[in-house]
Amino acid sequence: MVPKAHREDLVTHRISTFGEFRDAISAYRLPRVLLAALELDLFTVIGVRSWTLTSLAKKLKVSERGLGILCRNLASAGLLYKSDGVYRNSALGATALNANHRTYRGGYLTLIRSHWADWIRLVESIRSGLPLDHDVPDGPDYRRQFTWAMHHRTLEIAPAIAAQLHLGRAQTLLDLGGGPGTYAMAFLARNPRLRATVCDRTAALEVAKEIASTHKARGRLSYASLDFSAEPIPGTYDVIWYSNVLHIYSPEENQAIFRRVRSALKPGGRFIIQDAFLHDRQGLYPTEASLFAVSMLLFTEQGNTYTVQETAKWLRQAGFVSIKPIPIRKGTGDWEDGIWEASVPGLRPRKIANQTESNRNRKAR
Predict the structure, then answer these.
(1) How many CB atoms lie within 10 A of CB 11?
(2) What is the DSSP string of 104-150?
(3) Which of 6, 111, 244, 323 could form an S-S bond across to 149 if both were Cys, CB 3.0 to 4.6 Å?
(4) How do residues 190-213 score in pLDDT, each as one tens digit?
(5) pTM
(6) Rounded CA separation 241/161 (Å)
(7) What pLDDT digit, counting tens, does each position of 147-170 carry?
(8) Fold of the domain built from segment(s) 4-94
């Protein structure tokens, strides 16, 4: 269940008048403006310079009239600064949106640009029940690009979450379906005694190795290429982190994965899940979680978003106990109220250590 204090946040404004319906549909306008700027490489071209519209239009090979309207809207959104007809980048435009800057988020920007064309085809998937282009297998280039996109998406989120999830005396962590290993590296940075393994497809792990190569804790990170939806998970761990993977699979597939996770955890081990959970009884809210299910329709064979209640039921059936939410500060996670944990029966490492110390004290007496 969702903490009472957060329940009112789950339901966004409902559409009950034609004016509200019109406003909801018209919300596409600013996103399309932002995507047009990305398609023109506008933030990269502007860079750290200031430009008149005439000079910038000539550089981009577009009309001055069209560029003027585009830049006016970008300035009103805070992405450009305008002064006496001269435009320059905001801090965000000059860095994360600028391909010439070291903090450029190109992987994720490419992904969201492609999503515009994909969402236009939504009716195709609604009619078929299948993802777009389902008969065309994903190649390694797509997997590599997607993995970089996930890294760029979680660069700030992963350290914020790792700072709030206390792993106690856990010595081993498996980042299951961890893609770029961004979360694994964040946990390693916060826990100097921890060793972590990233488990995913080979193409994703190649990206993870590139990212880890510049990280101080890279010596405590290992890699496991595995189809964990069909194969047993090798080794045993104190903690298994399952972030934004649940929604990729069907209920049956997730239940099978939960059983494999159960077998790969040590007694007292923790299974921590982060996902776009639905929290109300009817499975409608929060709205963002319901909308994310549309992405799963477009891009996965069986994926969906799930309620906390049904996920907890699968966990209990797999043999987990102590199913509960992990509270984190509002706005610091991927999803609101989106982190839950379950345990394998038995003592956790901290409790074992405390019990051992207690036994020693008794003998000393």
Answers:
(1) 12
(2) --HHHHHHHHHHHHHHHTHHHHHHHSS-TTTTSPPPHHHHHHHHHHH
(3) 111
(4) 999 999 999 999 999 999 999 999
(5) 0.87
(6) 12
(7) 999 999 999 999 999 999 999 999
(8) Arc Repressor Mutant, subunit A (1.10.10)
